[in-house]
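Marked as duplicate of an earlier ticket. Keeping the data here for the record.
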Amino acid sequence: MNKIISRYILKEIALLFVLVLFILTFVLLMGRILQIMDLMVNKGVDFSAVIKLIIFLLPSLFLFTIPIALLVSVLITMGRLSADNEITALRTSGVSLLQIYYPVAIASLVSFIFAIVIGYYMVPHSYSASKRLIFDIAQQHASIGIKEKVFNADFKGILLYAEKVPSNGNYIEGVVVSDNRILTEQNTILAKRAYLITDPASMTVKLRLENGSIHSVSSDLKNYRKIDFNSYDINLDLSTEISPANTASKTKDEMTMTELLESMKKPGVNEVALREYAIEAHKKFSIPLSCIIFGLLALPLGMRSHRAVKSRGLTVGIIIATAYYLVRIGGEALVETGRVSPLIGAWTPNFIFALLGILLFYVSYKEIPFYHIVKMNIWNRTQNN
């Protein structure tokens, strides 16, 4: 009997979990769709590369949508069972709240395992793969994006003009570069010929200018300087809105747990970087653990009869998830400023919501009306005063 009930509840949660996970992931992905579509429509990027980029973005989205999808699916499932009086029938038949929680615990545990695998293994590799793919796309665009007698502004802080681009595209002639990267100076560079030089190891692209001159004017237009050169290299900034600006080294998001721990032990690491590494290391476990906490919290909250079950479950789920991540963001901000330790900042949201979940579960298990708890609390305060 208990196995049948558990399979029934678990099936309901699983179907809703997949649906909610798909919707939430799609909504978050929509924030990147316009930038990704710009790569395909305006930059001429292949459709296959765009699909790969979307796949590489999914693990980082799943890390946040899996706990929320579990929370909402449990809330809706428990709400529907309560609205149809199935929870009342089960409790009347002698099925305890712990037995009802059993399938929720299984769903929470499976979600926790998926989330920790994604956060521990897939997210770092997907970040590295997406950075490499974006560099390849940017490198290709840098090679094909330079046209004859057209001003090119795709590189941050640089305006590039080429008088002639041979059909093979190996070099450009009659180059004029307006360099605005230094705010105090306006540099105009003239060169007879230029080459694009890429370094896949450091993920950088350089524009090597030959036989030219640099013309600099001070901001007050009182000083002028000219420098002739035989060879001059300009680093091109290929960072985009969907890629990190620093591609030469691994960021904390790309590091595995082993790399984070090794980076924290390196001598000479400044305190700011050390705190960021510590936060990222704790997040690899604290965020997946929220699946267990959300499952514990959603069961008593969902077991309340209401007509609009789906809308109520979705609303309550969004409110709880928003509150959880606001507390988490606040904790991480305090850690980054050095006011609290990384352990406290990363685990305080889980501790708070776990206590709330245990309290609500106890109240539901003992079938204590909520208004009775409030009344007793007010009475105790009155007696103390």
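See parent ticket for discussion. The chain has nine helices and six strands.
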